[in-house]
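Our consortium's second objective concerns turning raw sequence data into structural hypotheses that experimental partners can test. To show how far this objective has progressed, the report includes one record in full. It was chosen at random from the queue rather than selected for favorable results. The single chain below, 300 residues long, was entered without modification.
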Amino acid sequence: MLRAHHRSFYSQRLLSSTGRYLYAIALYFVTWRNRQVTKYVEHEKQWLRKSAGSYVFYERRQRMRAVNEVEFSENGFIVKTLHGEQLTQSYRLRHKVFAESLKWVPETDDGQEIDLYDLWGTTVGLIRDDGAVVGAARLLPSSGQFMLEKEFGALLPAGYQLRKTSDTAEITRLAIDPEIRDRGLSSKMMLVLLKGVYQWAVANDIRYYYLEVEHRFFRTLRALGFPCEMIGQPVVLPPAGASSVAALYDMVRFDEENATKKPRLLNWISSIETLQGEMIVGRTSTYSNCQRLGLVGAEA
């Protein structure tokens, strides 16, 4: 019995020491892996900052999913898909809005707000007549990750399944230059930028947009005629402490409701003037399908 007791005691000590040894190995592996992930993320961020706007950056994003671009003029502004120096300007604008003003993200030394989503996102910008980018919206296709899948996941109710089909995208980093103090002008600029977002959806067969915005701006969108449906309840998100919501915006519903409620809004948002002065009308959510069938411009 005594020998059996010693063997049992020795076995327990052996198992205990073995367990500690295995735990130490596992802890080392996890720590090493986290360091490698951190290094990779930092490397990608540095690469993004160095390559933002360059041709190689553009090519890498385009391989994620082929997208059609938009470009038109509106009341002295140009609305277009951004590249090169104009895309870099949009990163500086985002920094002014989301880092310096709203405090949603930390400030950076180079004054640019860039993240990994820019690898597959497309930015539609609002350009003033002096060439300055004074508004921007980043649009994420379903072929890449949405911010609602990670950073803003707290806005979704438990068990909610995001649409990740090709007719769905996410509106992120929607911003107007905060240095524009005229609230009336700022509101008009936001509406023109939203027209760019609408037209990008038309060009890329997008019906549904996810977005995450402050609750008060959500109410503004609804009042303007954008039938966004809230997903879940408002949530106060750190570090800014703003009451925010996730929402789903249906392009087809927008067209159907505004055809009777706000026909002037629908006519305006679905009509564009090219940089050559040509007017194109009827670019609604059904435009791409009709164009594909050869029905655009056909007489009834």
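The partners drew two points from this record. Residues 47-252 form a domain with the Aminopeptidase fold (CATH 3.40.630.30). The beta strands are 71-74, 77-81, 122-127, 133-141, 168-176, 208-214, 228-237, 242-250, 272-273, 279-280. Both points have been shared with the crystallography group to help prioritize constructs.
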